[in-house]
Amino acid sequence: MIVKTPYLGDLEYESQDIIRFEEGILGFEKLHDYIFVLNSDEALPFHYLQSVEDNELMFIATSPYLFVEDYDFNLSQSVIDELKIEAIEDVTVYCLTVIPAETLKTSINLKAPLVINMKTKLARQVLMDEKFRLKHFIFDKSLNEEVE
Question: Which CATH architecture fits 2-146?
Answer without folding.
Answer: Roll (2.30)
